[in-house]
Write a structure and sequence with these properties.
The chain is an all-beta fold. The protein has no helices and eight strands. The strands form two sheets. A four-stranded antiparallel β-sheet has the order 1-6-3-4, with no helix packed on it. Strands 2, 5, 7 and 8 form a four-stranded antiparallel β-sheet that branches. Strand 3 and strand 4 form a beta hairpin.
Length: 139
């Protein structure tokens, strides 16, 4: 999935750790979720700034110890945190901020060795998927 914002009317300075929080339902246990932060220039050129991957572990066996967690039910959205990395970048006026979310980012990250998965990305309401950009105020 690709989310691209409107052209910026003023520069946006981002400095620090970028984090994607996304709610997904994967159709296979142990799938990957990847994210990319991209600067889209007015001429359409897309510049990758940072990216990350989070491997979903298969649901654990039912807990037998008191107080142990219960795995989520299959087919239910799971909250995933993907750390895209630290950044120091100025999105210039007229540029767009883009977020790409996928189940793979090959060859940058290894393809999951065991499964092919399809994801449903949830956003809004009870599933507030979001990209956190550390904005530098006054920069």
């Amino acid at each position: 999935m690709c989310f691209t914002g409107a052209p910026l009317t003023a520069p946006l300075t981002v400095v620090g750790d970028t984090v994607l929080t996304v709610y997904v339902t994967a159709d296979a246990a142990g799938a990957d979720v990847t994210g990319k932060l991209v600067d889209v220039w007015p001429d359409g050129r897309a510049e990758l700034l940072c990216d990350g991957v989070h491997r979903l572990l298969p649901a654990p066996a039912p807990a037998t110890a008191p107080g142990a967690g219960v795995p989520p039910a299959p087919g239910r959205p799971v909250k995933v945190t993907v750390r895209l990395g630290a950044i120091g970048h100025v999105f210039r006026t007229g540029h767009r901020v883009r977020l790409e979310v996928a189940a793979s980012n090959a060859p940058r990250f290894d393809v999951h060795p065991r499964v092919v998965a399809h994801h449903t990305v949830h956003h809004g309401g009870d599933h507030p998927s979001r990209l956190l950009l550390p904005r530098l105020v006054g920069g």
